[in-house]
Amino acid sequence: MKILNKVVWYAGFVVSVFPVCWVFFYLWEDEDIWMEIPLAIGIIGTLSIAAAGKVGKINLAPPDPDTYPVPFIGLSSMGGSQIYALFSSGLIMLAMFIAFGRSPVGIAVALITVPIGFVMLLMAAFVVPYLAAVDGIFLLSVFLAKIIDRYEYDVNTRRFVCPGCGRKFYRPSYEVEGELIDGLCPTDKGVFHREMRSSKIPCFGSKSGRKRLPQCCPACREPVNTEEGKPFVLSVAGAPSSGKTSFILSAAGKAISSSGNGNASSAEFYFKKDASVLSDYRAGRCDPTPVSFLSPRIVCFEPKHFPTKRLVYMCDVSGKFFSGGVETDLQPQYVYNDAIVFMMDPFCSDPAGTAFGAYIGFMEKYRLLNRLDASKQITVPFALVVSHSDKPGPFSGISGAELKEKLSEEGYFTLVNMIEKDFSSVSFFSCDASKEDGSASAVMKHLCGKEFGQFF
Ligand SMILES: [Zn+2]
Questions:
Q1: Same-domain pairing of 235 and 340
Q2: How far is the CA of 343 from the centre of ligand 1 (A)?
Q3: Would 100 be classed as within a structural domain?
Q4: Structural domains counted in the chain
Q5: What is the CATH number of the domain that holds 364?
Q6: CA 207 to centroid of ligand 1, rounded, Å
Q7: What one-character-per-residue DSSP string does 356-382 give?
């Protein structure tokens, strides 16, 4: 911004010289040598002083702002400092010969200073439209930068979900030179760069360096490493040991080992600890999910065709939350999740009653947190997933409308009916969550839409 200010400042002198010349020649149409000489003295004198910056009390140097970010110089933001500098310097020039009186020295000085003073006063007037135009162009580019940044942010990022505390914000906080800035985006103090004490921070568009700045959560202040990746948040609910954790690890494991179905240059867990949970799962071990808020399992995809990462948050909710006993369930993602998976184990004792009880428990908390009464239908995509499709039973190997019909026949009519009353978009799947055979990935592919589904 300092460089831009200097360019605008010096260009202001050059640009305002032309209308000054035009006025002189307009007033004295004949090319009069007695007009041209003082005009030349005035212009050369003014431009020389401007180039020198400061001569005695005359100061035509660009202001040196001590506030950061450096404000943009212009008619509005700098209070017309160039106009003021030219005007006051012009008056000093005009008054200078008075100091010398009517002596020959005074007359000699006046022959030089009076033309310079007049030229400065005229330039002070003619620099106004120039600075107004510069201001207009600058404000327009800020306006356009904001629109483009907002568009790119919506397309490639959309929102920030803290991996630590699970809360959602528009943007993370960015750390710049030890200072935390919430939502770094183009402002009227800088379009492409926000100039800080010693470095320039790009803050424009998804491809800029902004995404690589140190970032943290505006609420819990935990450092995050999402690089402005676009999040997709999935809640996985269901009765205890219905296969929620296995479902997540099956889908995540397959996505990671296949590099996002071949559509990502890399795919990995955001939290390194989840990699060991995955290897436990592959070895056949799976512990029950603890009764507390658990940071979601996040798979980060480095896409080949998007400028930012795509992050899939899979929130594993302990089954105990839905089976009574645990009163409060503070799952922040219920408010903003993009899809819901409800797991059901048809081989446990009283499977229909267990699934129904867990569903009622989940919906109670879900509606409470979203402040939705029972009459309001929820538009978030919902998948009912029947686990253990490997074991021979009425539901193994079928999905969609066929599975829905079979469920109604086999004693799950109330559950199916209730789900379809609560959710406007319901799908039915059966899967074997104990393996990475693609049955869990098919659910993800369906729920995640085109942009995220391609990785499963
Ligand atoms: Zn947080």
A1: yes
A2: 28
A3: yes
A4: 3
A5: 3.40.50.300
A6: 24
A7: HHHHHHHHHHHHHHHT--TTSPB-S-E
Q: 109 and 137 share a domain? A: yes
Same domain, 333 and 447: yes
CA 429/CA 423 separation, integer angstroms: 16
- Bridge-partner residues for 302, per DSSP? 266
Where among 181, 196, 224 does a domain terminate? 224
> What is the spatial distance between Cα 293 and Cα 62, in angstroms, rounded to a whole number?
57
Across 390-441, the runs of DSSP E, i.e. the strands, are: 426-430
Domain that holds residue 219: 162-224
Quote the ligand 1 centre to 358 CA distance (angstroms). Answer: 28
- Domain match, 142 and 189 both: no
Tell me which of 149, 171, 186 is where a domain ends: 149
Does one domain contain both 137 and 257?
no
Q: Going residue by residue through the chain (456 aa), what tens digit of pLDDT does each one get?
A: 778 888 999 999 999 999 988 887 777 666 666 778 888 899 999 999 999 988 888 888 888 777 777 778 888 766 668 888 899 888 888 888 777 777 788 888 888 888 899 999 999 999 999 999 998 998 898 899 899 999 999 899 989 999 988 999 999 999 887 888 888 888 877 777 777 776 777 788 888 888 889 999 999 999 999 999 999 999 999 988 889 999 999 999 999 999 999 999 999 999 999 999 999 999 988 776 665 657 789 999 999 889 999 999 999 877 666 666 565 656 788 889 999 999 999 999 999 999 999 999 889 888 988 898 888 899 999 999 999 988 888 898 899 999 999 999 999 999 999 999 999 999 999 999 999 999 999 999 999 999 999 999
pTM, 2 dp: 0.82
Both tokens assigned to 187: 């402002």
| 219 alpha carbon – ligand 1 mean position (Å) | 5
Q: Ligand 1 mean position to 398 CA, how many Å? A: 40
Cα distances from 278 to residues 281, 316, 375, in angstroms, run 5, 14, 40
Ligand 1 geometric centre to CA of 312 (Å): 17
* Residue 173 belongs to a domain: yes
| C-alpha 228 – ligand 1 centre gap (Å) | 14
